[in-house]
Request: fold
Amino acid sequence: MALSSFGYVGYRSADLSEWNTYGTSLLGLQVVDSTRQSIAFRMDDRKQRIIVEAGDGGGASFYGWEAEDREALHAICRRLDQAEVPYTKMPTALCEQRAITEGVTFFDPAGNRLEVFYGATVADDDFAPSRAISGFVTGPLGLGHIALYVENIEPAHEFYTKILGFRMSDYVTAPFRAFFYHINPRHHSVALIEGKSNDVHHMMMELYHLDDVGQGYDIALKTPEMIATTLGRHSNDFMTSFYTRTPSQFLMEYGWGGKLINVNDWTPYEVTVGPSIWGHERDWLSEEGRQKAREMKLKAASDGVREPLYVAGDNFRDNAINCIWWEQARKASDSSDM
Ligand SMILES: [Fe+2]
Reply:
């Protein structure tokens, strides 16, 4: 794979001070640079991951995709050449601004500005979250994932898979059409959601501890209208998460427990249970869509759909269950699965 991860992202906002408050008091990001024109946030050892620029209209300005090294960047350029996609080398001043060594920029079929780069600057000091969180799951998995509304999924699918080397993880067709793609073990780094316009739908950031997410939910509940999707669990990456509206209008998913996949042995499939196995009431869906989603979740409940937890690091203890009826029930379940 030529691309390794989702490296950085840029948004627009008419109100940078609102972003400052949102990014620190809810998300727990660290402000590293704040001017009247822009604000930059850290979320790990990188110098910056999220840049918000002053501007009307909200939404995203650019998406930075990391290539492992110079050779990987040039391999992407060769694929762009073959596909006759025009691209521009990023000037030195822009590379310095992005805190990268080298990069190129071009547009996807939906008009999103993509920047492929290598050599991101690592900060000299430790990440200091602005509220008491355990930290974000980043490193080789990248900063999280991005979900894009696209009017026409097919050309975007061709572009991300054939030129950029993304591989499909899975897809849903109801209550909306959405396709999920990976470039590393994170279940998806990009999702394409069929919509009425080309826009950013949401970004996801993943926390180490479930309690970071729950405590963030309590903070968000102080402003209930900020919550766009209630706490719930996804049916494909098994992320437990909630979504808030950012000061740039799009949504931010704040989650825990995303499944990692084996990129060398993965077959895409249709997820028919719906996008979530419980929770995740989406206020941005039509009433018809919400009703359909509720029906699917209640069916999941009546079917007894449940999935294991995917836990990172040392944030769990394995309870040694010693309960006769549970062991009997488990053995009966195991033998019926055989
Ligand atoms: Fe998501």
